[in-house]
Write a structure and sequence with these properties.
Low-confidence stretches: none
Mean pLDDT: 96
Number of strands: 14
Radius of gyration: 22 Å
Largest sheet: 9 strands, mixed
Distance between the termini: 40 Å
Order of helices and strands: HEHEHEHEHEHEHEEEEEEEHHHE
Structural class: alpha/beta
Strand content: 15-25%
Helix content: 25-40%
Strand order of the largest sheet: 13-12-11-10-6-9-8-7-14
Length: about 325
C-alpha cells in the first residue's frame, strides 16, 4: 500500500524502467504491474532476482513476527545477487546487521540506500545549504520535535512492542544527523502517561541538541519543527515545508528603537509553498522528498557511485540511536566514542 501511494508513482520522475513487480499476493502484484507499466509480476522475490536482469531493486516491506524489518534479509539477498538496493526505512534496529550488510556490499561491489525521505525535503535540503554559508557560522545547537511515544522500560526488549518506535524514530533522527552530524552521546527522560521523551544530544563536532518526542499532542497539531542555531544566525523549519532563515542582524539599541522593521539586508528570509498551481513542487511526492530521493538513487545507479546521503553509514547511526533508547531513562549512552 505504501509503495502504491508514494514510491511507485515517483518513478515517473526518474530514469527508471520498471521491469517487474513482486508481492506475496500475486494478484496484487499483477495489478500493480499493469498500473505502473511493469512487464512481469512475481510472488517470490528470489525467483525475480534469478530470472530478471536488474540494475536495482526497491524494497518496501513490513515486519516479521519478532518485530524486525523484513527488508534486511531481502536486501542482503539482492546485493548478493549483484543488484543495487533502495529500501524503505528503517532497515534494521540492530547495528550488527547493518555492518553485515556493509560487508556484503563490499564483497559484491553493490550498495544500499535507505529511504530517509525527510533529508530530501526541499526545506531541509535548503536548511543544510544555509548552514554551510559563512554568514550562518558554525553549527552550535539544535531543537527538533516530533510526535512519537516510547514504550515503558519493561516493554522495550519486545521487538513487536517497539515496531512503532523503530519505524518512526528515524524520521526526526535522520534530520538531526543530516544537519548536526554524527552523535557522540545522548540521554533522555520519559514521561510515563503518554510516553513522551526529551533527549539531550551531544554531537561529535561539539554542538548540542534536544529532541522532543511529543507523544500526547493533538492529532490536529503540525507534526514537526526543527530549529538550528549558528553563530549570530538561526533557521526554523515548521511542519516540513515552511522555512525561515533569520540572518545576522540587530533589533537596535534597547529602549531606543522606534520600529520593529529592520533593514532589508538583515530581514528574515521565508520560503513556503503555494498549493494553487499545478506545479511539481506542490505535489506530495515532492514536498515529502519521495521523488527527490528516488531520482537521487537512480542517478547514483546510472553513475555507479555509492550514495553520499542515506547510505548504510547513516543506517548504522540510526540503528545505534535506536539501541540507545533501550537503555534506562536518564542514562548517558555513547554512540560514537
Amino acid at each position: 500500500g505504501h509503495s502504491f501511494r508514494n514510491v511507485l508513482p515517483a518513478f515517473q520522475y526518474a530514469p527508471i524502467d520498471l521491469a517487474a513487480v513482486c508481492d506475496l499476493d500475486i494478484e496484487r502484484a499483477e495489478v500493480y504491474a499493469r498500473q505502473f507499466g511493469a512487464e512481469r509480476a512475481y510472488s517470490d522475490y528470489r525467483e525475480m532476482l534469478e530470472k530478471e536482469e536488474l540494475d536495482a531493486a526497491f524494497i518496501v516491506t513490513s515486519y516479521d513476527a519478532e518485530g524486525e524489518p523484513q527488508s534486511w534479509s531481502i536486501a542482503a539477498d539482492a546485493v548478493s545477487a549483484g543488484v543495487h538496493v533502495w529500501t524503505e526505512k528503517p532497515q534494521t534496529g540492530r547495528p550488527e546487521r547493518v555492518e553485515e550488510l556493509m560487508r556484503l556490499c563490499e564483497r559484491s561491489g553493490k550498495w544500499v540506500m535507505v529511504g530517509y525521505k525527510k533529508i530530501f525535503f526541499p526545506a531541509i535540503a535548503k536548511a543544510k545549504e544555509i548552514m554551510a554559508r559563512s554568514d550562518f557560522g558554525a553549527f552550535t545547537s539544535m531543537y527538533c520535535r516530533y510526535p512519537q511515544a516510547l514504550p515503558p522500560m519493561e516493554e522495550r526488549p519486545n521487538g513487536r512492542r517497539m515496531i512503532g518506535f523503530l519505524d518512526h524514530i528515524v524520521h526526526p533522527m535522520s534530520i538531526v544527523y543530516y544537519l548536526g552530524g554524527p552523535i557522540r552521546s545522548l540521554r533522555f527522560l520519559r514521561e510515563p502517561r503518554r510516553g513522551a521523551t526529551v533527549t539531550l544530544i551531544r554531537f561529535v563536532n561539539g554542538g548540542i541538541g534536544t529532541l522532543h518526542l511529543t507523544a500526547g499532542q493533538s492529532g490536529t497539531s503540525p507534526l514537526e519543527r526543527v530549529e538550528v542555531i549558528g553563530e549570530g544566525a538561526n533557521l526554523v523549519v515548521d511542519n516540513g515545508v515552511h522555512l525561515t532563515y533569520y540572518r545576522p542582524g540587530s533589533r537596535g539599541t534597547y529602549g531606543r528603537s522606534t520600529s520593529f522593521i529592520v533593514d532589508d539586508d538583515q530581514a528574515p528570509l521565508v520560503w513556503t509553498p503555494e498549493f494553487s498551481l499545478g506545479q511539481l513542487y506542490n505535489k506530495n511526492l515532492f514536498t515529502l522528498g519521495y521523488a527527490q530521493e528516488i531520482l537521487y538513487f537512480a542517478e547514483c545507479v546510472l553513475e555507479n557511485r555509492p550514495p553520499e546521503r542515506a547510505g548504510l553509514a547513516m543506517a548504522l547511526e540510526m540503528a545505534k540511536v535506536f539501541q540507545a533508547y533501550l537503555a534506562p531513562d536518564g542514562e548517558e549512552v555513547v554512540i560514537n566514542p
